[in-house]
């Protein structure tokens, strides 16, 4: 590593905590903040320091990384951080914020002279903890040398989708990728539910498609979580997936296309959350096929 950076991580949920831990393990100074302090405290074991508020977390930081629930949350927290922000600081915005939230985030960055990087990530708990995420990034070419070490600490690769004035291109790609993830998860849950209803051993189905074009690792991974009752801790929670699904539907509407599968996936995830599965892995949308929690 050529330079030790000071990185502020705002948001230490499933993804933020793992990313902060890997940045610290890469040798950078890490300050973390979370609205629920107890979720940030365990990171002190990895050398991170816990800040009492966003402004103190970002004060003097080279890079600010936001990994929060949604766009409005990222905007509110960065407004709280404003007293500690310095011109020229790089803001890596990794929250899945959706398209409608991006203009306000970019405007806030411009107001404070920040280098704004739209940088959502692909991956769930396990690759996040292993530092194997895929970073989708868009932002100014000048200054990338400052954010590259952060991307290298959290991810296996970085895909640049655009430079100056391209904020939003990374989020667009993230929404496209997540639309596939949500559709595949919904299909996995429904095929297992139908197999249960028809008294078909799921193993027979897996055997029929084995090695062919319909087979895929993701199907087996999510099916195993359901069949082996390993839905906690969540790799990617039902409630967060439901939020992302709605962002996808809204993006489609904005682009003039109707996304029936995404809309059905959102409704399915929301139904599972209402049944009490909100904090479990998104594969728990399987239970939305039944009238009540089973």
What would your notes on this structure say?
It is a single chain. Helix content is 47%, strand content 14%. It is of the alpha/beta class and 294 residues long. The longest helix has 29 residues. Strands 3-2-1-4-5-6 form a six-stranded parallel β-sheet, sandwiched between helices. Helix 10 packs antiparallel against helix 11. The mean pLDDT is 96. Strand 4, helix 3 and strand 5 form a beta-alpha-beta unit. The protein has two domains: 159 residues, Rossmann fold (3-Layer(aba) Sandwich), CATH 3.40.50.720; 118 residues, N-(1-d-carboxylethyl)-l-norvaline Dehydrogenase, domain 2 (Orthogonal Bundle). It is built from eleven helices and nine strands. The N and C termini lie far apart (50 Å).
Provide a short characterization of the protein structure.
The chain is of the alpha/beta class.
Entry keywords:
294 residues; alpha/beta; Rossmann fold; N-(1-d-carboxylethyl)-l-norvaline Dehydrogenase, domain 2; 2 domains; six-stranded parallel β-sheet; three-stranded mixed β-sheet; 47% helix
* Overall geometry: globular
Helix fraction, binned, reads 40-55%
Based on DSSP secondary structure assignment, what is the total number of beta strands? Answer: 9
Write down the CATH topology of the largest domain: Rossmann fold
Strand content: 5-15%
Biggest sheet details? 6 strands, parallel
CATH class of the largest domain: Alpha Beta
CATH 2nd-level architecture of the largest domain:
3-Layer(aba) Sandwich
Number of domains: 2
Q: Give the radius of gyration.
A: 20 Å
Order of SSEs? EHEEHEHEHEEHEHEHHHHH
Unreliably modeled segments = none
Summarize model confidence as the mean pLDDT: 96
Number of helices: 11
Category from helices, strands and their pairing: alpha/beta
Order of strands in the sheet with the most strands? 3-2-1-4-5-6
Quaternary structure: single chain
Give the termini separation: 50 Å
CATH homologous superfamily assignment of the largest domain: NAD(P)-binding Rossmann-like Domain
């Amino acid at each position: 590593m050529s330079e030790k950076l000071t990185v502020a991580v705002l948001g230490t949920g499933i993804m933020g905590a793992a990313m902060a831990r890997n940045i610290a393990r890469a040798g950078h100074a890490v300050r973390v903040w979370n609205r629920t302090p107890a979720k940030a405290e365990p990171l002190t074991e990895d050398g991170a320091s816990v800040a009492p508020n966003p402004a103190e977390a970002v004060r003097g930081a080279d890079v600010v990384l936001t990994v929060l629930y949604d766009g409005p949350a990222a905007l509110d927290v960065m407004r709280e951080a404003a007293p500690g922000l310095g011109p020229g600081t790089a803001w890596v915005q990794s929250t899945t914020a959706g398209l409608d939230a991006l203009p306000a985030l970019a405007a806030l960055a411009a107001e404070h002279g920040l280098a704004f990087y739209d940088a959502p990530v692909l991956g769930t708990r396990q690759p996040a903890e292993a530092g194997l995420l895929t970073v989708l990034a868009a932002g100014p070419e000048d200054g990338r040398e400052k954010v590259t070490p952060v991307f290298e600490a959290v991810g296996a690769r970085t895909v640049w989708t655009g430079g100056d004035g391209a904020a939003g291109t990374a989020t667009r790609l993230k929404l496209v990728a997540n639309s596939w993830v949500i559709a595949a998860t919904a299909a996995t849950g429904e095929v297992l539910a139908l197999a249960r209803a028809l008294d078909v051993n799921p193993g027979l189905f897996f055997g029929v498609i084995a090695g062919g074009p319909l087979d895929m690792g993701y199907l087996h991974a999510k099916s195993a979580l359901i069949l082996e009752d390993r839905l906690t801790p969540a790799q990617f929670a039902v409630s967060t997936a439901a939020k992302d699904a709605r962002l996808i539907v809204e993006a489609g509407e904005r682009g003039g296309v109707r996304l029936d599968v995404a809309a059905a996936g959102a409704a399915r995830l929301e139904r599972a959350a209402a049944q009490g599965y909100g904090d479990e892995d998104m594969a728990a949308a399987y239970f939305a096929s039944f009238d009540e929690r089973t």
